[in-house]
């Protein structure tokens, strides 16, 4: 499941390339036909992310909410072909070739492939959404209701770490479990959870109420920085240069991107202890018993 950095990256991409542009909206699969008809032909005025939710605003208080879940994916395309957002084009979509357009001035997108829930088409490019766990048109009250169920998102300007601390600081649940709860802190997923706890030296099975406020503040600040870096580069990299085989590597190889995630049994990059893992709340938790002993 994409973590919060990717949803904010998507929001930035939509705002830059589709903000202020009229879009043709359809549901080739048919499951979103009614919702698509509500916003078809409208101008996408704004885009924002909250946690793992993407909101595209079409004016008149109506928003397209997308939650990708485990299997959802967005594919972008233009006259040069398809591309993903992890490593997007540097050029504006459709800029390198003259796009073919239909009679209404929209890009002549290729026939949809597979179960495309939503297709958005501009004058020079298109976007296909497949397999989301949620896709719906909401009014302002509906959007607010979704966001009110979420904890603060470290990537948003309105984020309040104090609100998350009020839950964490009183909870008997493990800090590892709390960081995965979207009603406590929105946008953090399995990788950021494990990596941030390692970087903080916090034993993941400690109860939230056993953390000090200073530990929580440091954890929040580090998560914020890691998420911001993820937005910028389009992938998760949590290792510091001095802990990699090649400190100058750019881009950082995937096998050197994490301290603990997907490294069960391998030696810790810092202390050499074998990385451990276990199932916790249907997800795999990774940690170092040497570096995270407190």
Measured on Cα atoms, how large is the radius of gyration? Answer: 21 Å
- Estimated share of beta-strand residues: 15-25%
In CATH, the architecture of the largest domain is Alpha-Beta Barrel
Predict the CATH topology of the largest domain: N-terminal domain of MutM-like DNA repair proteins
Oligomeric status? single chain
- Give the class from helix and strand content and strand pairing: alpha+beta
Most strands sheet:
5 strands, antiparallel
**How do the SSEs run, as a string of H and E?**
HEEHEEEEEEEEEHHHHHEE
Number of strands: 13
Biggest sheet strand line-up: 2-9-10-7-8
The percentage helix is 25-40%
Mean of residue pLDDT values: 93
Total domain units: 2
CATH C-level label of the largest domain: Alpha Beta
- The end-to-end span amounts to 29 Å
Poorly predicted regions are: 87-94
Note the overall shape: globular
Q: Write the CATH homologous superfamily of the largest domain.
A: MutM-like, N-terminal
Helix tally equals: 7
Protein name: DNA-(apurinic or apyrimidinic site) lyase
Catalytic activity: 2'-deoxyribonucleotide-(2'-deoxyribose 5'-phosphate)-2'-deoxyribonucleotide-DNA = a 3'-end 2'-deoxyribonucleotide-(2,3-dehydro-2,3-deoxyribose 5'-phosphate)-DNA + a 5'-end 5'-phospho-2'-deoxyribonucleoside-DNA + H(+)
Keywords: DNA damage, DNA repair, DNA-binding, Endonuclease, Glycosidase, Hydrolase, Lyase, Metal-binding, Multifunctional enzyme, Nuclease, Zinc, Zinc-finger
EC number: 4.2.99.18
């Amino acid at each position: 499941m994409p973590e919060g950095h990717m949803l904010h990256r998507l929001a930035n991409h939509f705002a830059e390339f589709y903000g202020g542009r009229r879009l043709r909206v359809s549901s080739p699969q048919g499951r979103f036909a009614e919702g698509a008809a509500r916003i078809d032909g409208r101008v996408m005025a704004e885009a924002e992310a909250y946690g793992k939710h993407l909101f595209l605003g079409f004016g008149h208080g109506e928003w397209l909410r997308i939650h990708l879940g485990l299997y959802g994916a967005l594919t972008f395309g233009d006259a040069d072909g398809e591309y993903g957002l992890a490593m997007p084009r540097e050029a504006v979509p459709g800029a390198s070739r003259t796009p073919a357009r239909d009679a209404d001035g929209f890009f002549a997108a290729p026939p949809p492939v597979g179960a495309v829930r939503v297709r958005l088409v501009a004058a020079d490019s298109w976007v296909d959404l497949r397999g989301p766990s949620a896709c719906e048109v909401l009014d302002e009250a509906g959007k607010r209701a979704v966001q009110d169920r979420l904890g603060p998102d470290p990537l948003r300007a309105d984020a309040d770490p104090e609100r998350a601390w009020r839950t964490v600081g009183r909870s008997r649940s493990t800090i590892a479990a709390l960081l995965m709860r979207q009603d406590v802190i929105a946008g953090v997923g399995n990788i950021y959870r494990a990596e941030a706890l390692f970087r903080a030296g916090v034993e993941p099975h400690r109860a939230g109420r056993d953390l000090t406020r200073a530990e929580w503040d440091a954890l929040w600040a580090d998560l914020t920085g890691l998420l911001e870096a993820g937005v910028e580069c389009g992938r998760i990299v949590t290792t510091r240069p001095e802990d990699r085989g090649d400190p100058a590597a750019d881009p950082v190889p995937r096998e050197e991107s994490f301290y603990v995630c997907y490294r069960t049994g391998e030696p810790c990059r810092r202390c050499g202890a074998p990385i451990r893992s276990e199932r916790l709340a249907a997800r795999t938790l990774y940690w170092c018993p040497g570096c995270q002993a407190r």
